[in-house]
TrEMBL record:
Full protein name: Imidazoleglycerol-phosphate dehydratase
Organism of origin: Ferroacidibacillus organovorans
Protein's GO biological process: L-histidine biosynthetic process
InterPro entries in UniProt: IGPD_sf (IPR038494), ImidazoleglycerolP_deHydtase (IPR000807), Ribosomal_Su5_D2-typ_SF (IPR020568)
Entry keyword annotation includes rRNA processing: no
Sorted UniProt keywords: Amino-acid biosynthesis, Histidine biosynthesis, Lyase
GO molecular function per UniProt: imidazoleglycerol-phosphate dehydratase activity
Pfam families referenced in this protein's UniProt entry, alphabetically: IGPD (PF00475)
Amino acid sequence: MTDEHNITVTRKTKESTMVIVFGRGERDAELKQRLKTPLPFFNHMLEHVVWRGELTLSIDVQLDVYHLVHVITEDTGIAFGKAVKEWIDRYGARGIVGYGSAYGVIDEALSRAVLSFESRAYLAFDRNEVKLPEQMEGMQSEDLVAFFEGFVQGAQCTLHLDLLKGREGHGHHIWESAFRAFGMALYESLFERASRKGMTAGVAGAIHYDITHA
């Protein structure tokens, strides 16, 4: 991915180092090889986000002695969110919409995602009546929720993610519908319209802080 407009975010802690390269452009034929977390199912879910969001993305995860799944998903979410926020901050004046909603479906599973980038970090994750298994494909559902928790922290956005339909025990399809919905809502949020040049997602406009020290 050589697009000069790519955003690179490196997040380092004592537990992990995450390098995210994010952009928009032509589909990357090497996408699967660029999603380098040690969690195959998580990589597959991120692949859906990129595919539905019409994004470019690479992720490289390095861990310390403890390979904690929660750390991988949450920290990846934070770094990914930071990259998206930087994209909006950098190119928002071109007319980036800043909000979007979408439904994601695969067979019997249906989910809805609603996003707004207004510097307000909030995740509402609602299972409704869907019986989501606690574990599937070698992962815990709570660790996939952690990805979205991390994303809203990094992106400073509001995300409502609602599971609407799903077959009991079929976590793969339920989660895939959710990640598909998220990717499509992200596509809408990052879409550029000439009529929105100079506008923000909310009517309050850009937020400015003056901080002084006594």
